[in-house]
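ok so dumb question maybe but i'm new to this and my supervisor (M.) told me to 'just get the structure for Platelet-derived growth factor (PDGF) family profile domain-containing protein' and walked off. so i did the thing. is this what she meant?? sequence i used:
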Amino acid sequence: MKIVLLLTLVAVLCYGSLPKCAENDKQRKDLSNHIKSVRCKGPKESFVQLKVPDGFDYVKPNVVKIPQCTGLFCSEYPMKCLPTNSRTKTQKVEAFKRGADHLAICTSVEVEEHLKCACDCKNTTCKQNEKFNNEICACECDPEYKRQCQERIAAGHRVQWSKSSCACLCSHPY
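this is what came out, is it supposed to look like this??
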């Protein structure tokens, strides 16, 4: 696994400039093939862990093979290979509860099947004082709150901006 990650890192660093990173034609071809093999493409059959229903300890089977977006490499950092289209499938399982009676029932669990993949940001729900930034694929402090805090500082209030909480906090002299 470490070798694959190392090759992927080299491929990412060299993407678009293979002649600079590869010393000969064989290395260029190997690097090019590696980039193609880890690129975000259509879904591939992959093993997915099944969820255990509430009140139970484990299920059988505990994994299922289902199409998933698996590419490691998107040419634009920090995008990731994510599903753009998916559907929920139902998988029948036997759910077990440990204990004196070792209860087992037949039930169904849901699993997401990926139908189409693309390099994209996963737009998550940000905290109250944050906004999602597509350029970095992450939540960051809402610049409006920082601007308001800077105005309070300029007006002489004993406050300071906290990047970790995205808020204007009271300054306490120690």
